[in-house]
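input
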Amino acid sequence: FVSVRVANGAFDPNLTAQADEVKSVTPATSTLIGANALAVKSYDWNFGVNKLSAVTGGTMGLVFDNNRTLTNSAFAAVNPSFSPTIALSISQPLLQNFGWQFATISVRVAESQQKQSQWTYEQSIQDIIQQISGDYWNVVLTEESLDVNRAALKFNQDLVRQNGISVRVGTLAPLDLQEAQSAAATAEANVFTAEANLKTARAQIRQDVMYNPQGDFFPAEIEPAELPNPHQTIVLDESTSLQAAVEYRPSLASMREAIRAALLQVQFSENQLLPQLNIGAQIGVTDTAGRTRCSPPFTGPPGTPGSGNCTPPPPFLANT
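output
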C-alpha cells in the first residue's frame, strides 16, 4: 500500500520556496563606478509550483520570483530596484515518456506488486491451514495406530500365555511358544514406536497452532474433536475442482500479477530507448520598480537640474 501511495505522490503538486540574501564587493576597475569598490546587495523571495499530468505526462509550472537589489554604482538608474516576475510554463514530451496515461505506469506496476504481496499472503495462510490440517489428522492417525498396536500386543500376550499352558501340559511344542513370544516382543516394540509417533505428532500440532489462552510458557494441548468417517461418501467433480483451482489459487494469481508487472516493465523500458524530444511554451510578466536617482556624469552649478536633487546612496553601501 505504501508503494502505491509513493507512486501516486509523483502527481501531487510540488511546491518550492527560496529566500536568500547575497552581498558582493568588487574592487573598482573604472572611475565610472563612482566609488572605490562596487558593492551589490540583493534579496530574493521566490515561490513556485509544478505538477505532472497523469494523462499526457506533461509538466505544468507556475513561478513567482521577487528580487530586490541595492548598489553603490553611480550609473544605477533605479536604486534600490524591485523586480517581480510571474511565469507560467508547459512542457510536453513527444517521444520518451510520451503516451496516453503512460505517466501512471509506475502506479500500475506498484498496484500489481501490491496484489502479488496480497496473493502471496493468502497463499501463506492457505499453506498454514493445510499444514495444521495435516498435523490434526496425523494426530488422529497415530492415536488409531497406537490403539491397533496395543490390541495386537494384548492378543500376542494372550497367545503367549495360552501357548505356555499348552507346552506345560505337553500339547504344544516349545517352538510355538517361542514364536508367540517373538510376536509379542515385536508388538510391544510397535507400541513403543506408536507412542513416540503420537508424542511427536502432538508436539508438532502444538508448535504449529500455538494455542495458548492462559499465557503459559508452553502452548496448550490440542485434542482431536472429529474422527474420520469411512462410510461418508464425498462426490468430487475433478473438472470443476481443477477450474476453481486455476481461477482462485493464490499462487497462480500471484504469477499472473507478476507477468502483468513484467509486461509493464518491458513497455517502460522500450519507451526509455526512444530519444528525448519535448515541446514547451512559457508566458510571463515582469516589472521593475524602485527609487530613481540622478547620477549625472558632469555636475553643473548649484540649482541646475541633476546637481542638487540627487538621492544619496544607501547607508549600508555609502562607506563600502
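quick obs: The longest strand covers residues 37-52.
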